[in-house]
User: Which sequence fits this backbone?
């Protein structure tokens, strides 16, 4: 008899709750992502522009870069076309690389208005020039970018991981598999003091690579929905406590192994520490009783550690190592599933 058929009670308990939980995770991930202010450089051409010089847009985004000494630098990447085959294009009397008529240059912005001196030189040495003005919109882009970063209250993460899973049950099944998994996560601060946060994630094994039974493939799907509260900090560590609900289920050919529709509460303490201005580490512990607090023998326990690099602008990057174990005793079924996961994710 398939292991999944040994506990129909779990299917009945979760049937009415699975869809709302997964739907809530998807809605959280898709909602309330505020658009940041995007300062731009507006191109102003001279009354008599250079022949053959065209820009791909009248506006180009201004980006802010943090240098090694902690100072900020504003940059703009300008793209366009230069359509003259008999002349060379110069910027501030330096050659501009033109390939297939296309060019792209990067210049620092120091003031609200920056002048770029474009020139062309033909075969006879004749020089023509045009002063192109870049006007920052808004006039103080650094202030607007930093204001926008400070106002951000939500983040989305997308990740890939390698997962080693070990499964066994009292029906005599033992199975080990290594595969690739994907994860989508979302978090949002609920208050201006950033002490209250909502978080959600969805993860799934989607590419089994190897296993000790070539005729068997095993897939795990899970979702978490949590509310967190900031407890305080001590000795450089920041402490949070989360509570919420989880959902997990497995898939295998013919339902030969695994479980279906496990759903229950969870408690999730977490601690993080800033290593430097842009680097941090964090660790967590998760405890989730599968049948409520009255029966702790059936539960999921997990713990992990992660390292995150978060630049001033752009994508953050995280490397994580997690281990979880699900123990399930329901009716005649006794199941153990352990997972060791090494993951990499980007956040924006």
Assistant:
């Amino acid at each position: 008899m398939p292991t999944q058929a040994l506990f129909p009670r779990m299917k009945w308990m979760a049937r009415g709750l699975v869809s709302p939980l997964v739907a809530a995770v998807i809605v959280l991930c898709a909602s309330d992502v505020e658009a940041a202010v995007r300062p731009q450089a507006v191109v102003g051409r001279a009354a008599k522009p250079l022949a053959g010089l065209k820009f791909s847009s009248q506006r180009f985004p201004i980006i802010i870069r943090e240098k090694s000494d902690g100072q900020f630098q504003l940059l703009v990447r300008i793209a366009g076309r230069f359509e003259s085959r008999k002349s060379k294009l110069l910027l501030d009397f330096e050659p501009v690389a033109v390939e297939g008529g296309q060019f792209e240059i990067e210049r620092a912005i120091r003031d609200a208005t920056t002048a770029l001196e474009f020139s062309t030189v033909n075969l006879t040495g004749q020089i023509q020039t045009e002063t192109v003005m870049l006007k920052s919109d808004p006039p103080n882009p650094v202030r607007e970018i930093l204001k926008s970063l400070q106002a951000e209250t939500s983040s989305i993460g997308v990740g890939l991981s390698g997962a080693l899973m070990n499964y066994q049950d009292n029906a005599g099944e033992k199975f080990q598999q290594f595969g690739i998994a994907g994860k989508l996560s979302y978090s949002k601060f609920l208050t201006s003091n950033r002490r209250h946060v909502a978080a959600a994630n969805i993860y799934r094994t989607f590419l089994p690579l190897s296993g000790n039974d070539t005729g068997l493939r095993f897939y795990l799907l899970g979702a978490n929905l949590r509310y967190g509260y900031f407890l305080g900090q001590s000795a450089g560590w920041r402490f949070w406590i989360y509570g919420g609900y989880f959902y997990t289920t497995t898939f295998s050919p013919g339902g030969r192994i695994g479980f279906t529709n496990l759903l229950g509460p969870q408690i999730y303490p977490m601690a993080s520490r800033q290593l430097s201005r842009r680097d941090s580490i964090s660790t967590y512990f998760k405890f989730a009783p599968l049948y409520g607090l009255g029966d702790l023998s059936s539960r999921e326990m997990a713990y992990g550690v992660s390292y995150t690099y978060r630049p001033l602008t752009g994508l953050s990057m995280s490397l994580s190592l997690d281990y979880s174990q699900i123990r399930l005793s329901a009716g005649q079924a006794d199941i153990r599933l352990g997972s060791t996961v090494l993951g990499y994710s980007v956040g924006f």
